[in-house]
Design goal:
- The longest helix is centred in the C-terminal third of the chain and has 20 residues.
- By secondary structure, this protein is of the alpha/beta class.
- The chain is globular and about 40 Å long.
- It has a single domain, classed as Uracil-DNA Glycosylase, subunit E, CATH 3.40.470.10.
- The structure holds uracil (URA).
- The site of uracil has 13 residues, from α3.
- Uracil (URA) binds next to α3.
């Protein structure tokens, strides 16, 4: 039996498994439909997410919401989370020990939600879910099927803020997600 999201929420409540607990304001577990068939995994909370306790509510999240709106995807039909649940200071990449301490939570979230499609937002999500042999530049936009789940690696939304080309590719990758969801009769 997989743990429910509520059980995971209780386990993580006072988490002090890594040093990020000392600087966080809020733990950011995830947001959205706990029965979603499409899950998105980012890197870790930024300043806005740390303040609000919700993933992707800052600049990068707003850009992602803009893409969802344009593509007819309702964010409420998805479940969104991150590899680490507490903000790395100065928005640096999460460190190895922090990821190791936290990765069990996202693994349990995947088991609990049981999605058919997982969108991996950026290198940190890709390499920590599927393995360090995967490179984001060569993997993005291509389906990887593993243990009955279809994974779509794409750019991290923060990367789109700096690069128009990546914005177009991100959009195209989400189109592929929609096509697959249509094929699988998944609501979005
Ligand atoms: N970047 C992430 O990877 N996750 C968030 O929740 C916000 C910004």
């Amino acid at each position: 039996m997989s743990e429910s999201i509520n059980e995971i929420k209780k386990q993580i409540e006072n988490c002090n498994k890594c040093k990020l607990c000392k600087t966080r304001t809020n733990i950011v577990l995830g947001d959205g439909d706990i029965n979603a068939k499409i899950m998105l995994i980012g890197e870790g909370p930024g300043a806005d997410e740390d303040k609000e306790g919700l993933p992707f509510v800052g600049k990068a999240g707003k850009l992602m919401n803009f893409a969802f709106d344009g593509l007819g995807i309702n964010r409420k039909n998805l479940y969104i989370t991150n590899i680490v649940k507490c903000r790395p200071p100065q928005n640096r990449d999460p460190e190895k020990d922090e990821i190791e301490a936290c990765i069990g939570y996202v693994e349990n979230q995947i088991k609990s939600i049981n999605p058919k499609i997982i969108v991996l937002l950026g290198k940190i999500a890709l390499q920590n879910i599927l393995g360090s042999e995967y490179k984001i530049t060569s993997s993005r936009g291509k389906w990887i099927e593993k243990d009955g789940i279809f994974y779509m690696p794409t750019w991290h939304p923060a990367a789109l803020l700096r690069d128009e080309n990546k914005k177009i590719q991100f959009w195209q990758d989400l189109e592929l997600v929609k096509d697959k969801a249509d094929e699988m009769k998944i609501n979005y």
